[in-house]
Design goal:
Blueprint: H1 5-25, E1 34-37, H2 63-72, H3 80-91, E2 99-102, H4 104-129
Parallel strand pairs: 1-2
Amino acid sequence: MPGFGAYCAAKFALEGLSEALAEEVRPFGIRVLIVEPGAFRTEFGGHRMHRSRVIDAYAATSGATRTAVDTMDGTQPGDPRKAARAILEVLDLPEPPLRLALGNDAVDNIMAHHDLLRADLITWEKLSRGTDFDGPGITGT
């Protein structure tokens, strides 16, 4: 989301770390679960949230996000108790997923993001695949 770059960067970093960790510890019977929640009623966006000053030049990009966050507390669609139950249910499975999306908004947003990624791959596939070395074997330093 525009205006959430640092927040999203931390989430991306944690997701990448978790993916690698899952593969590293799998042989030891240790499982990793990446929980990808949508908006839940946890006071995120409420009075406890630190807000930076408003910069008018960003009104067209991050302004809508700021407004949404400023008015969302107590209206988020997700129920934290149901999320906790879902997490516990998945953790009790013999083969839990690596990722667990929670909430209709999370599922919809993740699917839309995957559709965008797939569209970019398909659109640029020929150019992307054309960057390998020509000829037999790989040469160079």
